[in-house]
Structure formats: C-alpha cells, structure tokens
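Example 363.
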Amino acid sequence: ATHKLLLLPGDGIGVEVMAEVKRVIDWLDRRGVASFAIEEDLVGGAAYDSCGQPISEEAMAKAFAADAILLGAVGGTKWANVPYEDRPEAGLLRLRKDLQLFANLRPAVCYPALADASSLKRELVEGLDVLIVRELTGGVYFGEPKTITDLSDGQKRAVDTQVYESYEIERIARVAFELARTRRNKVVSTEKHNVMKTGLLWKQVVSEVHGSAYEDVHLEHQLADSCGMQLVRAPKQFDVIVTDNLFGDILSDVAAMLTGSLGMLPSASLGGVEELSGRRRALYEPVHGAAPDIAGKGLANPIAMIGSLAMALRYSFGELEAADRIEAAIAGVLAGGVRTADIYSEGKTRVGTSGMGDAILAE
Ligand code: NAI
Ligand code: MG
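Predicted structure in complex with NAI:
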C-alpha cells in the first residue's frame, strides 16, 4: 500500500530535522521497502507569517486526508508578541484537538551506548524500554469550571476541575492493552484512587476493559506517586504505563531524563478509528521544541524526528520491518560512536544534523 504522509516541518530546528527524515523516506521508497505519497505544508510561526494563522484551513484538510502526520516543532522568539490565539503552539493544539488525538505515546528507550548520559546509574537504565501512554484530551487541563475569582476579603480563589468520563478511560485503556501485546505484555495503570474520584473510576474502568478482552495481558495498578518513585528506583520493571493527562505529563518527563537527551525522544498521538477507512488518526513528532538557541546552525540531533517516522511505520502503516530497520540503524550508529553535540562525549565522532542523517542512511 502507498502511505499518505503529511509533513509539517514547522519552525526552527523542525525544518532541519525534517530534512533528514525526508532522506530516510526517499531511501525507503527507492529501495521498495515502503511506498509513500508525500504532502507538505506549514505550521506554527511559519504558517502565521504566510497566512496569518498558525495552521491554514488547507493544511487542516490535508491533515484529515493523511494516513499519518509527521510534525517537526513549532515556536520561536520571533512570534513572542503575536496574538495569543495565533501563537505557533496553537497550530499544534488545533491539530491535536480537531483530530481528537486522545492517546499520547511516549517511549523512553535507553540505548546502551548512551546509558552514561542518563540521570541514573548505567545498570539501572541500560536496555530500558518503557512506553508511557498518556490520556491527552481530558482531565484537569480541560475540565470545567476553570476559573480565578476574587473573594470579598481581597483573597483570590483558583479552580481547576478534573473530569473523566468512562468512555475516555475505556478507549485509552484499549490502546494500552493493544500496545502491550506487541511488546512485553505488561501494563501498569496509575492514578490516585485513594484520594480522587476520577482515580477510582479510572481503576475500575481499566479493570473492566482488562477483564472484557485483555486477560492475557498482565495488569497492575499503582498509585501515581509510587509509580514516580518506582520509575527512578527500578525503571526496567515497566513495559507500558497508562495514565491520565496530568500524571502522564509529569511521568513522561521523568522517564525522558532516564534516557539521556531531549534530541533522542520521539512521540505519537493517536486518535479514534474512522468508520469508513478503518484507519486511526495519528500525529508523530519529536518531544523537543524548535530550539531557537541552535536553529539554523546544522547542529540539531535528528534522531527524535527519525524515530518518529519509525513510530509512524510501526503504528500507522504496519511496516514493522522498516520500523525495526530504522531503529536498528539508530542503535548501530550510536554504538559506532557517532554523536551530535547534544549527546557528544570525549573520544566520540562529532557530527552535525546532516552528518547524523548520512550515518543513519549508511547504517
Ligand atoms: P526545546 O526543546 O526547543 O529546547 C530545549 C533545549 O534542548 C535547548 O537547549 C535546545 O537546543 C536543546 N534541544 C532540543 N532539541 C534538540 C535536538 N534535536 N538536538 C539538540 N539539542 C536539542 O525547548 P524550549 O527551549 O523550551 O522551547 C523553544 C521553543 O520551542 C519555544 O517557542 C517553545 O514554545 C517551543 N516548543 C515547541 C514544542 C513542540 O513543537 N512540540 C515543544 C516544546 C517547546
Ligand atoms: Mg510536559
């Protein structure tokens, strides 16, 4: 099958790392490993400069038509003073919202060659491969009421509201169990059922989904604070962690620091399955931002971006062999001592963005 892929490079180093992904896509296409129909458009500050909106209606239409979207990064100091609703991040938020991308997948993989860059001791992280599945469209970031009010005595009161409906928990639980089956078959579900009603419902619904169709997957419930502790005590015990928007935000950043550099981390955001085509909406992007401090210098590490393509091949296109080959090439290049500046250490071979692309293609 030909995979319809929309490329949204965005701003700053997004453009530079996307250029390396395009070379990988060309390589796969030319060798007949996988076949692509590529569209490209603007997002973020680049789109604002071109059409006065952080994503155009035309780009949104392309996003709905695509089998998957690859996004670089958005943002930069140049757009510090544009109206709030037109800021670069708003383009990304609109994509997530309109495509209903409710499941955020953040793998934290520690390559043995980079284990010394982790915040933890080598033996704790070497070979680490955790997948955090974070609920992305509900919970306390979106719940109403969400207010700050003045009280009569000059004090103020701020309110955020955590709301989850059972269907939101059910669909993210299914994603977690399905993914666990393609990995080591283990899910840890994490919440605070001891002090939160949403936690109580979360635990109950995850257990029900487990009992209904996924009893072959090992399921464990952990309180979120305890899960955070375990993640820095013995992270290799985890396979898939499924959690809500707030806890997932925090736990995925903790897990990120176990692996070394921000420039190494891909992510996926998955939405619902469309009835007609049977395809799942999906957006793949590096965890890092537009990095204005190094933009335009050819220094950015393209591995997070190239790893995001591997995730698209795995989760949207079912091209497992191509995904494996990309991930093996990344591991091989790192084992061979090739390093961009962000992961450089003494005695290794320092390269720029395109040099890393060259090395991965060669491998
Ligand atoms: P950032 O991720 O852009 O940069 C943080 C630090 O990590 C910088 O020192 C940067 O040079 C370094 N870094 C990041 N990616 C790298 C890579 N691939 N290779 C080598 N070094 C890398 O986060 P920051 O500085 O907080 O934000 C910069 C801009 O990016 C802001 O406008 C922010 O709003 C935006 N941003 C966008 C995101 C997105 O598009 N998803 C996510 C995070 C920030
Ligand atoms: Mg965060």
